[in-house]
Write a structure and sequence with these properties.
heterotrimer; A alpha+beta (about 325); B alpha+beta (about 775); C alpha+beta (about 170); A: about 325 residues; Uridine Diphospho-n-acetylenolpyruvylglucosamine Reductase, domain 2; five-stranded antiparallel sheet; about 20% strand; C: about 170 residues; 2 domains; five-stranded mixed sheet; 6 helices; 5 strands; disordered C terminus; binds flavin-adenine dinucleotide; binds iron/sulfur cluster; binds FE2/S2 (inorganic) cluster
Chain lengths: ~325, ~775, ~170
């Protein structure tokens, strides 16, 4: 890691002010930041430690939904009885992520801002070309080993996956990211790479994520997060799906359904086409499988990641069928 | 046959050797007290960090170290410009070119990730950051990146590895049933949890190296030759090794760089290879491909095996990963031909990784055998038993011991094999497809001499001293057991000192041969110590036994007494005190009389030239095993989980079942990783392994591993070793990957012939 | 050295004073500055678990934690879990008894993780133990025995068998 200075912010305002400096960065759990600093991807001059700030780690869950402070730890949220009851997919997305140790360190705010695991991005000394790190330098991944790269939302500038699990569940249930007084729907928080893959979210310099808000909904309460990967644990998703379903009073007809995908796209990916085609229907295996294929409409393969186009709809279908009692 | 019940506490009820003792070094390892190479409290240390090449082939044109040198704390930057004054050292067999200079930081780049510079600074952080500031410019040439590179060619035939008898081609052509398939294994890596590295310190012309070492004496010789100093001036210290699996048996280029830097700077140097750097700082298992053709009768009697294999090696040296190593050994076959080719590519020179050769070889053969079983519709267990080899067809010699039939039948019984339905896709557990498969394994008995010192001290305690090492196989523990058994003392009374090249000589902890070699030496030295003690007890004028008229004495439970129980009975401490001795020391080795001079010692302890192969004598000696594996496959996702493993082993006599079982399971788990997860991914544009870290090169986690039942069906083999054991460490991985591939086929009807079996190959 | 800072760290119940650069991780501070080398470095990237220790009783990875971040927190390492008199912690004893390691390099991390795993209540079944111990890789492949050891120690913790009785066995 490049040499930096370290200080503990005494208040959110102080932290916010400090990060207006060009080389300053907020330090939460450090599991993304220090990792990337070691790789040489980020080279901060100053780290502003916010983990000691009081109040930013609080959680409340009530009939309206959940509000979770930015400093709440992944592990705490995963184990929170209220979250587990009202948002099973959210809790599962967290408990299936990383490892117990990392979940004790990593914060919800930091989690939303984790960076891609693209191997080319992570070795700047070896692969100078990376538009995300160094705009305009090119993309080393295209034409290389792309097994873990995105098939959805890619551009000719960047095909890196957004690897987070939590954000997928949050996108499915229309959560908000709170930045002090500003509040943004999480789907609008993340940006497609386009020509500017270095620009990943709408967070502005000096802005701090203070928390997230997840509105309660019957679909969120009846939800699941399904994560498929090579290894049984301690690995990012090859493909994942967050699915929640609300049925009509008849218990069969879909009134509301939410579907989001992870591990396959450049940002957490809401699959509205799948939702639209199933709303108002009674689920059956064939229809679900057919609808699930809409989740990868427009997907582009780069060779090694072709399997994701096949895999993702199957993961979506299984998650829907599970929630529909058909798996 | 013994099915090992897990018994709670180690005790001598099973005999001292053969008892389920807990590890002697257990307390140190569980309290953080075991000190590994990079943890030595050496004063005045500086830190070295490597800079590796970012191209796969070409020349270093210039190294701009200006910025790095100007960075805070930096003491020096070593580059190809620097002549470190080293000489090329011997190879493993002791061959050495005369006075040839050795440049561990070369100008010619022959693989991506080759060390070309090193930065030394006061702190680790300073050296790490400064290393990123070193700018290297290259003149690139076109690399050959792997076996499939169009410029790689067919490779060179390695004549030494060609084996044949009968007329395999003709017999294959004439066979009723013929199968042919190509099998592939990718680059695989050791990934010991302790990354490589070393701490070095010079005192005048004397060099101390704390480095994880599977072979202290061999590595000491290497350093002495690099620096052209007497062998006795080098001391390798390696009491604990955080996993080796074949990767810690030699000094590598970075070792030389660290030692040279320490000499130039006049300060001790610590060099930690970073995890990503470990992927190219030394070689893993080479990628292989092999084509197997098997001819058989309709009722499954093998007629011919024709095997053609190849492995990649570097452009710098030949390291064959022998795809034909297991092929001639497993089955009775009247006609066989195997050949192996070496294909030089721009990679780090591959190395030995757990069961080199045998492992990929068994993947090919054991997959092919099951392909045959489906081709003729015969149960794969029955097919294997039908073609059971009653002797070694390759050497023509009888087996010393071969309990492979027992391994197959006992394993099948415990696994419940008879409940299997042969048809692929015929077994299910809910949504999951279930598959069962078998894979057999073999590993040769290699024999080498070693030396040990036994000390009986005044307080009656015993010390075993040897330069042999313990990287987790349990050397500390089994040597305490061996000495305790011979000397009739409780194992707790024995202390074992290992892992130091200044101690008595030992062969390499590789090829699963150390246990056999070193227990032999300890047994011999302890027997001599015992004889000396009894001699003194009978003859010393102050000994209470002098007048008993006994002509021998017995030692048991720490007491020495007259055989039939009459007369005095003393503890060893009491006897030592009575005869006025504070120590008895005996040093013995297992070299033959007449070949036991200083040159013989040097050759035996520091080279592999004296190692005897499995058929050096009149017999053919090997360890054997049979794995029975159940997998569950989610067909929608292509995910495979191993849900059950039963493995039966013939490794001769087991010195400590508790530790042997751990090693077997360890091998099986590495085999599960090999089958399902492990693969170095090469970016062909750059010839670089891009998943060079533990988040992307996946090894199994706890959640990937089911309960693994291991069973010993071995019987003592005293031709293989003094105490009757055969090798334990490597055979466990052999046959696991094909067992899994076979189970996946049984589950899904899809035959995956290139490892690993990842989800995209099944969906 | 450039910008060093003075830290006072509470490790295993003792205050340790040190001057380090702010970029020094807790792992390197322990190993390089404080001679507490029981905590291991396997990857330095959060990918193996060898560096696991406890901060305020929670298991964390010391390779992705700055030493400066944990000033004022209680740090516990493998050197600090045995009883005052030297009796092994029940998890340590269970690891020895079950042969839950070979080379021993992942072991301090496994044990620190296991102690926390039991404390968190995540040692209820073998399946749960496997999942919650998956952040600690063991290349020697001691997983079966690790699960057995955690199970045994968890049962002991539940039934209140004294650590000492087990320690003597070892
Ligand atoms: C080996 C490994 C495996 C992993 N596996 C998974 C996985 O399977 N699934 C998964 O989802 N994740 C996984 N992760 C990623 C992990 O979840 C993230 O690293 C973590 O959530 C980041 O949180 P943090 O608090 O540590 O963030 P930090 O590293 O402290 O910060 C990350 C970024 O966010 C900024 N930041 C932090 N907090 C705020 C705030 N409140 N306001 C504004 N900016 C802020 C920082 O400046 C920094 O740029 C894994 C990580 C590792 C190392
Ligand atoms: S995919 Fe994106 S992150 Fe990866 S190398 Fe290309 S531009 Fe960089
Ligand atoms: S060293 Fe910290 S996780 Fe590997
Ligand atoms: S005991 Fe060696 S890595 Fe776990």
């Amino acid at each position: 890691m490049r040499d930096f200075s370290y200080f503990r912010a005494a208040s959110t305002e102080e932290a916010s002010r400090a990060t207006l400096d060009a080389g300053a960065m907020l330090l939460a759990g450090g599991t993304t930041l220090l990792d990337l600093a070691k790789c040489g991807v980020t080279e901060p001059d100053t780290l502003v430690d916010i983990t000691h700030l009081a109040g930013l780690g609080d959680m409340t869950v009530d009939a309206n939904g959940a509000t979770i402070g930015a400093l709440a730890k992944m592990g705490e949220v995963a184990d929170h009885p209220g979250v587990k009851a009202a948002f099973p997919a959210v809790a599962q997305s967290l408990s299936l992520a990383a490892s117990a140790q990392l979940r004790n360190m990593a914060t919800i705010g930091g989690n939303l801002l984790q960076r891609t695991r693209c191997s080319y991005f992570r070795e700047p000394g070896v692969f100078p070309a990376c538009n995300k790190r160094n705009p305009g330098s090119g993309c080393s991944a295209i034409g290389g080993v792309t097994r873990n790269h995105a098939v959805l939302g890619t551009s000719r500038a960047c095909i890196a996956v957004n690897p987070g699990d939590l954000a997928v569940a949050l996108v499915a249930f229309d959560a908000y990211v709170e930045m002090g007084r500003r509040r943004v729907a999480i789907e609008d928080f993340y940006m497609l790479p386009g020509e500017t893959p270095d620009w990943e979210t709408v967070l502005k310099k000096g802005e701090i994520i203070t928390g997230i808000a997840i509105p309660a909904s019957p679909a969120a309460k009846n939800s699941t997060y399904l994560k498929v990967r090579d290894r049984q644990s301690y690995e990012f998703a090859a493909a994942s799906a967050a699915v929640g379903i609300e049925f009509e009073a008849d218990g069969k007809t879909v009134r509301d359904i939410r579907v989001a995908l992870g591990g396959v796209a450049t940002r957490p990916w809401r699959a509205r086409a799948v939702e639209q085609s199933l709303i108002g229907t009674v689920l059956n295996v064939e229809a679900v499988e057919k609808a699930s294929r809409l989740s990868v409409e427009g997907a582009v393969s780069h060779g090694g990641n072709r399997y994701k186009i096949e895999l993702a709809p199957r993961v979506v279908a299984r998650a829907i069928l599970t929630m529909g009692g058909l798996a | 046959m013994t099915i090992m019940e897990t018994r709670k506490h180690g005790d001598a009820a099973d005999g001292m050797v053969g008892g389920r003792f807990s590890r002697l070094d257990g307390k140190l390892k569980t309290t953080g007290g075991a000190t590994y190479a990079l943890e030595q409290p050496v004063k005045n240390l500086v830190h070295a960090v490597l800079v590796q090449s970012t191209i796969a082939a070409g020349r270093v044109v210039a190294v701009d170290a200006g910025k790095a040198k100007a960075a805070p704390g930096v003491l020096s930057v070593f580059t190809p410009e620097d002549d470190l004054g080293l000489l090329v050292a011997s190879d493993w067999f002791g061959n050495r070119p005369d006075n040839q200079p050795f440049h561990p930081l070369p100008r010619e780049v022959s693989f991506n990730g080759q060390a070309i510079a090193a930065v030394v600074a006061e702190t680790l952080e300073q050296a790490t950051e400064a290393a990123k500031l070193v700018k290297v410019s290259y003149e690139e040439t076109q690399p050959v990146t792997g076996l499939d590179d169009p410029n790689a060619g067919e490779g060179r035939l390695v004549d030494m590895l060609s084996v044949g008898w009968g007329d395999a081609e003709a017999a294959y052509a004439a066979a009723d049933i013929r199968i042919e398939a190509e099998y592939r294994t990718p680059r695989e890596y050791h990934v010991p949890i302790e990354p490589h590295g070393l701490t070095v310190k010079w005192e005048g012309d004397f060099l101390t190296v704390w480095e994880p070492s599977q072979w202290t004496h061999g590595m000491a010789r290497t350093y002495a030759e690099w620096f052209n100093i007497p062998a006795d001036n080098v001391r390798i210290v390696s009491p604990f090794i955080g996993g080796g699996f074949g990767s810690k048996a030699m000094g590598y280029t970075y070792s030389a760089v660290a030692a040279a830097a320490a000499r130039k700077l006049g300060r001790p140097v610590k060099l930690a290879v970073t995890r990503p750097q470990t992927f190219t700082a030394y070689g893993g298992r080479a990628a292989t491909r092999q084509t197997i053709r098997i001819g058989a009768t309709k009722d499954g009697v093998l007629q011919a095996i024709v095997h053609r294999g190849a492995s990649e090696t570097s452009v710098l040296a030949d390291f064959p990963e022998q795809t034909g190593a297991a092929t001639p050994l497993l089955y009775a076959v009247p006609n066989l031909s195997t050949q192996h080719r070496l294909v030089p590519v721009n990679t780090v020179t591959p190395g030995a990784l757990r069961a080199p050769g045998k492992n990929p070889s068994a993947f090919g053969l054991e997959s092919a055998i099951e392909e045959l079983s489906y081709a003729i519709g015969m149960d794969p267990l029955e097919l294997r038993l039908r073609n059971y080899a009653d002797h070694d067809y390759q050497s023509g010699k009888p087996w010393s011991t071969r309990q492979l039939r027992e391994a197959l039948t006992v394993g099948a019984e415990v696994f419940g094999w008879s409940k299997r339905s042969h048809e692929p896709r015929s077994m299910r557990d809910g949504r999951q497809l279930v598959g069962w498969g078998i894979g057999c394994g073999t590993f040769p008995v290699l024999k080498a001499a070693s030396e040990a010192l036994i000390r009986i001290l005044g307080d009656g305690s015993v010390e075993v001293v040897s330069g042999a090492i313990d990287m987790g196989q349990g050397t500390y523990t089994i040597l305490a057991q061996t000495a305790a058994e011979v000397l009739g003392v409780p194992a707790e009374q024995v202390d074992v000192k290992l892992g130091d090249s200044s101690l008595p000589g030992a062969t390499v902890a590789g090829g699963s041969m150390l246990a056999g070699a070193i227990t032999g030496a300890v047994h011999k030295a302890a027997t001599a110590a015992r004889d000396e003690l009894i001699g003194l007890a009978l003859n010393d004028s102050n000994s209470p036994f002098r007048d008993t008229g006994a002509n021998t004495l017995v030692i048991a439970d720490g007491r020495i007494s007259v055989p039939r129980g009459e007369g005095p009975s003393l503890t060893l401490a009491e006897l030592m005190s009575a005869i006025g001795r504070d120590r008895i020391e005996t040093q013995r080795n297992t070299l033959p009389e007449g070949a036991n001079g200083p040159e013989d010692h040097k050759r035996s302890w520091t080279t592999m030239a004296n190692i005897e192969g499995p058929t050096a004598g009149d017999l053919s000696m090997h360890s054997w095993c049979a794995h029975f594996v159940e997998v569950k496959v989610d067909e929608d996702f292509g995910t495979v989980r191993v849900s059950r493993v039963v493995s039966a082993f013939d490794c001769g006599r087991i010195y400590n079942p508790k530790l042997a079982e751990s090693q077997w399971r360890g091998g099986i788990i590495m085999g599960i990783g090999q089958a399902l997860l492990e693969e170095g991914l090469i970016d062909e544009r750059f010839g670089r392994v891009i998943n060079n870290n533990m988040g992307d090169y996946l090894v199994p986690t706890n959640a990937d591993i089911p309960h693994i039942q291991v069973i010993s069906v071995g019987i003592p083999d005293h031709d293989a070793s003094v105490l009757g054991g055969k090798g334990v460490g490597e055979v466990g991985i052999v046959g696991v990957a094909p067992a899994i591939a076979n189970a996946v086929f049984h589950a899904t009807g899809k035959r995956v012939r290139d490892l690993p079996i990842t989800l995209e190959k099944l969906i | 050295m450039t910008r060093t800072i003075h830290l006072s760290l509470d490790i295993n119940g003792k205050q340790h004073e040190l001057d380090v650069e702010p970029r020094v991780t807790l792992l390197d501070a322990l190993r390089e500055s404080l001679a507490l080398t029981g905590t291991k470095k396997g990857c330095d990237q959060g990918q193996c678990g060898a560096c696991t220790c406890h901060v305020d009783g929670k298991r964390v990875l010391s390779c992705l934690t700055l030493a400066a971040q944990v000033e004022g927190r209680q740090i516990t390492t493998i050197e600090g879990i045995a009883a005052e008199g030297g009796d092994l912690h029940p998890v340590q004893a269970a690891f020895i008894e079950n042969d839950a390691f070979q080379c021993g390099y992942c072991t301090p991390g496994q044990i620190m993780s296991a102690v926390a795993c039991i404390r968190e209540g995540h040692a209820g079944s073998e399946e749960e133990i496997r999942e919650y111990m998956s952040g600690n890789l063991c290349r020697c492949g001691a997983y079966n025995s690790i699960v057995a050891a955690v199970r045994e120690a968890a049962e002991m913790a539940a039934t209140g068998v004294a650590a000492k009785d087990k320690a003597e066995v070892a």
